[in-house]
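Note on ligand handling. Small-molecule inputs were canonicalized before submission; formal charges were left as drawn, and no protonation-state enumeration was performed. Where a ligand contained multiple stereocentres, the stereochemistry in the source SMILES was retained. For zinc ion, this procedure yielded the string shown in the input block below.
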Amino acid sequence: MSNDTMRAVVWDKPYKVSIQQVPKPKLSHPDDIIVKVTTTCICGSDLHMYEGRTGAESGIVFGHENMGIVDELGPGVTLLKKGDRVVMPFNVACGRCLNCEEGRSAFCTHVNPGFVRCATSYVSMGPYQGGQAEYVKVPFADFNALKLPPGKEHEADFALLADIFPTGWHGVEISGFRPGESVAVWGAGPVGIMAAYSAILRGASQVFVVDRVPERLKKAKEIGCIPIDFSKSDPVKQILDYRGGKEVDRGVDAVGYQATTADGKTEQPNVVLEALISVVRPTGGLGIPGLYVPSDPGAADQNAQKGYMSFPFGKFFEKGLSMGTGQCNVKAYNRYLRDLIVAGRAKPSFVVSHEVSLDDAADAYDKFDRRVDGYTKVLLHP
Ligand SMILES: NC(=O)c1ccc[n+]([C@@H]2O[C@H](COP(=O)([O-])OP(=O)(O)OC[C@H]3O[C@@H](n4cnc5c(N)ncnc54)[C@H](O)[C@@H]3O)[C@@H](O)[C@H]2O)c1
Ligand SMILES: [Zn+2]
Ligand SMILES: [Zn+2]
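Structure output:
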């Protein structure tokens, strides 16, 4: 094995990844750093690519939730030094365009000129190699790398700052949530659980979590939420019955376009939007961190292939609802969420179900994709 290659998780074809030797990343811009990865997570968003439901091309290295130790620095990097422990937002941003300046780093127009989605190895990719590997290159490193306390403490909690903890928080934020309100979260995957946890941290009076996977509903219950199993009966009716007919103040869609029918067998991309419009009170708000795509070659019908979605806009209008959408501006939240972890007020790692070696990634992808054996959130250690 030469010093110029490293082990990485490579996507071969739908439902197949393998560990391969790939070129080790090199500094190519003064603002770059190379990070030796200590923890990298598998994400629900990786599964859209894993299943071949995006434009991803075979041979790419997966991994957009990365943390590790700064190993090499370009001459333009001023805030970091070799040996610093850092975690990176899943979406790469330049830190200097209009959206970055205004705190909306998920919509950086510089690294993302055509406004296709851009992140380290995230859906339509961008030019960056993923971090499910021994090393990862981080561009605009002063902006993108968040410094962490040295040592090994809180490793799993900090790893979740790359995506799901901020994304759950963001889902609650863009719903317009205020302390004391009630929230219904659709989806008890890692993002949904983190949204529910954020709502609790932020002072929600009541939080419902809807899913059909028992282990996931159990996690929701453990943090004080009311689990709703949508495989049993209409989840909207279950929530309204629980509340004596009263709707909730806020709804969060942490499922996205691969939402399924109650038996989990058929995709129904509009089902969550429709449910949220009926379960949220007039003038309440919907936060939609769940992913919707402008084109989905794998979709069942022509409209869905173009990213068109049918939902009751008339009802939405009649109720005066508002809706927040889009990728999470990780940079807007991650240092505060880091500080909540350091202070002992937040411990998001309760959502982590498995920590395995990078070499076991293929098996972990398979099980996580089938949502079996309690695979909720998987951390890989290179
Ligand atoms: N906005 C962002 O920045 C951002 C970041 C990360 C992930 N995401 C997206 O968030 C979504 C959730 O991510 P995740 O990692 O938790 O995914 P996941 O696939 O692990 O979880 C989704 C959950 O939704 C459940 N589900 C399916 N259909 C449902 C329905 N009709 N009603 C209720 N629950 C249903 C599934 O059983 C599953 O547990 C994905 O679409 C992901 O791409 C967005
Ligand atoms: Zn992710
Ligand atoms: Zn930018």
